[in-house]
Design brief:
With about 375 residues, the chain is of the alpha/beta class. The protein folds into 2 domains: about 5-190 and about 305-365, Rossmann fold; about 195-300, Dihydrodipicolinate Reductase, domain 2. It is built from 11 helices and 15 strands. Strand 7, helix 5 (about 170-180) and strand 8 form a beta-alpha-beta unit.
Length: about 375
């Protein structure tokens, strides 16, 4: 059984996912990097990209296997991709292109009014029997992400929201998905081994060991379009909320004050390309109020890092659709995303996800204050 998937945003993140699946297909040895070989009846090999949408002139109208290498994409896990007959289609631009990023590629001017494009896209998704729509739009694309959430609702397609525009964690939007019995996983994907998951684990370690976290920061910089886009600080609001609350949610006994935590992208360094460097510092007190601190530096290729999570999110969304489960998937969202509807400690979220795979699902209706913290 194939998982017929549509992708919004043929950028570096998607390139890491698309090329990574091809990489594993060519490997005969142990597949290092997969969190799950199988999820229910679905292997990673069952993900099939049937439709793709973008706004760049050098991608729209091109075969997907070529467009995935087009600038400003830097990802090159495999040297070439096999042809699959998919042509990248036009997406509505809306607010999906930041003022700095547009100088790196030429965004197209839409050929039709938004409503006409909307009907065309909904019809394409229905005609192609798409199971899952995955959103990889840039940070700050509020109107564009809402457009695609609406498309998922109107086409009956499961939605995976990898970006920090709050859909699954917005009660109004989540209710729409629940009422139509359409599954959604979101919001803002955690990297497989990234700054947020490491920062969360360390913050939880303080609490679990009886120490208090007094102050902390996380500074990030890199050289891809994501970091260039975030130089436009007005687009950063939801991203900072997502990353900060993801860490703060782990501190329930002794919450950290807002003025004592700073998490967010810091700068764009072009020659770094897809590499991201994160500096994390945690200052706290242990036995007898004795102070101590932790500092670490993470250097990682940021785009394949998200692909290792997206490959599970797509299969979990399809599994929910098969089981006729709608609304936000609490365990998978908490395990895979920075800003889920409900925050859980990562071991608990992992256990919930494993239970979900086995058929013991959690829905929006069974959230409890005793076991969760609403963000």
């Amino acid at each position: 059984m194939k998982i017929r998937t549509a992708i919004v945003g043929v950028g570096n993140c998607f390139a890491g996912l698309y090329q990574g699946i091809e990489y594993y297909k060519k490997m005969d040895t142990e597949r290092i990097g997969l969190m799950h070989e199988n999820i229910g009846p679905y292997s990673w090999k069952d993900i099939e990209f049937v439709l793709a949408y973008d706004v760049s002139k050098n991608k729209v109208g091109k075969p997907l296997h070529e467009a995935v290498y087009a600038k400003p994409n830097y990802v090159k896990i495999v040297d070439s991709m096999p042809e699959n007959g998919v042509i990248v289609q036009e997406a509505p631009v809306l607010d999906g292109v930041g003022k700095w990023v547009k100088d790196m590629f030429e965004p197209m001017e839409n050929t039709a009014p938004i409503e006409v494009l909307r009907e065309k896209i909904i019809n394409e998704i229905k005609e192609n029997n798409i199971d899952v729509l995955i959103n990889y739009l840039p940070v700050g694309s509020q109107k564009a992400v809402e457009f695609w959430a609406d498309v998922a609702l109107e086409s009956g397609t499961a939605f995976v929201n990898c970006m920090p525009i709050f859909i699954a964690s917005n009660p109004e939007w989540e209710n729409k998905f629940r009422e139509k019995n359409i599954p959604i996983i979101g919001d803002d994907i955690k990297s497989q081994v990234g700054a947020t998951i490491i920062h969360r684990v360390l913050a939880k370690l303080f609490e679990d060991r009886g120490a208090i976290l007094d102050r902390s920061y996380q500074l990030n910089f890199g050289g891809n379009t994501d970091f260039l886009n975030m130089l436009e600080r007005e687009r950063l609001k939801s991203k900072k909320i997502s990353k900060t609350e993801s860490v703060k949610s782990q501190l329930k006994k002794h919450p950290i004050k807002d003025e004592n935590i700073h998490i967010g992208p810091s700068d764009y360094v072009p020659f770094m390309k897809n590499n991201k460097v994160a500096y994390i510092r945690l200052e706290g007190r242990m036995w007898a109020d004795v102070p101590f601190n932790i500092e670490l530096r993470l250097d990682v290729d940021d785009k394949p890092n998200s692909a290792g999570v997206a490959v599970d999110a797509i299969r979990l969304a399809k599994l929910a659709k098969d089981r006729n489960i709608g609304g936000a998937l609490l365990g998978p969202s908490a395990y895979l995303m920075k800003h889920p509807p409900v925050q859980y400690p990562d071991p608990e979220a992992k256990q919930m996800t494993e239970e979900f795979i086995k058929g013991e699902h959690q829905t929006h209706q069974n959230q409890t204050e005793e076991t969760s913290e609403t963000v």
